[in-house]
Predict the 3D structure of the following.
Amino acid sequence: MQKTSFQQYLADLPLLHSWDQGKTWNTGGFVAKQLETFHRRAGGSTGGLSIIETGAGNSTITFLHAKPAKLISIAPAEALFGRIHDYCAKNGLDETPLQAVLDRSEVVLPNIARQEVDAGRRYDVGLLDGGHGWPTVFVDFCYINILLRKGGILWIDDVQLHSVKELARLLTLQPGFRLVEDLGKVLAFEKLTDEALLPDFGAQPYIVERTSQYEKYEKSENKFAR
C-alpha cells in the first residue's frame, strides 16, 4: 500500500479519541497547524531525532511521520495505541521507532529517565500532554527535562489550565529556556543548557517574584496569602 503523505494525513486527521464511551469520536486536542509545527520541530521529513511524549494520539502519528530514531509515548490507553497501530498499518507508516508505555507518566518516568540517562541517551523533543493536574504536570516536566538535551525542544500543551499555566510562567522567566513557539494553548521552549535539573528556588525568577508578592500581601493583611 502506498504511504499516506504527511500533508494528506493533515487534511484528514483520524478520529482517535472518544470521551463519551464511543458515542462520538474526535481527532483530539491538536489542530492541523499545531501538528504541522510539531512535525517541523521534530525534524520534518529528514528524521533521525529522539522524541518522548506524555499522552498519545495524533501527536504520536505526527512524530512518526517525522521519521524519528526513537519515539517513547506514555499513556495508560491500550485501545488508543491499538487505533494508532491500525492507522499506521493501513497507511503504510513505519511505527517501528515507537515504544508505547501503557502506564501513567508520573509513575513510569522516573525509571525511564534513569534507564535512558544510564545508557547515555538524551532526547531532542519532549511533549507534555499527559495528566494536567498537580503534581503530574511538574513530575512530567522534571523527568523530561532530565532527558532533554541542550538545544532540545520542550512542548507543553493546555496552558489555558492553571496547573500548566504555572509551568509556562516559570519557564518564561527561567534562564536556560527560551520561548520559541506560541500556538495558543500550546507553547514550545528551547532548552539552552545542559543542566538536567532546575536550580533551587532562589535561582528561579518566577518563584522569587511570586514569593515577594506573597510577603508584601501577608505583611499588609496579616494573614495567609490565598
